[in-house]
Amino acid sequence: MAGRHLLAGCAALVLLACEPARPPPPLPLDSPAPAAISAAIAELPAPYSSGDYLKGRRVFLRCRGCHLIKEGAGDRVGPNLYGVYGRAAGSVAGFAYSPAMLNANRIWDAPTLDAFLTNPRVDLPGTRMGFIGLRTEAERRDLIAFLRVESAR
Ligand code: HEC
Description:
Blueprint: H1 2-18, H2 34-42, H3 53-59, H4 99-102, H5 110-118, H6 120-123, H7 137-151
Helix pairs in contact: 2-7, 3-7, 5-7
The structure holds heme C.
């Protein structure tokens, strides 16, 4: 009797041990290829290089009311963010930026985006971006990874 229980227990253990690692959730159809995603994120400095594209994409839902991030898709309340990574602040032609943004004199990269997105009005007094900021470090890390990928398409 005890032997049978033992056997059943062992079988369960083996099954558990053999269960394959859970596959990552599928990417939405309009995402770049997984290799392109990893390559773009790998170029970021730590800790952004461990950012999660899919999670960042979810954080971006909070930006989407004001920003599109598709080439040629135009501006909303905020400028189009296509290619934002690596470009100069305030440089989308035809967008009515605040004087603060026009004079910001910075390139958007991981550290400058991180500081701005943490608390836009503290980082850039006078900005017209009406967004409270993202206080959670992991959210900013994932979002910056997402922005990097979308900028590199
Ligand atoms: C309520 C609308 C609104 C929301 C929400 C918002 N933004 Fe903005 N954003 C703006 C506006 C307006 C500007 C232009 C600010 C200025 O000129 O001072 C801007 C500017 C920016 C810029 C500078 C762009 C450039 O061309 O220099 C970045 C980067 C940016 N936003 C990222 C984000 C991200 C990422 C989020 C989501 C976490 C977000 N924004 C949420 C309205 C918004």
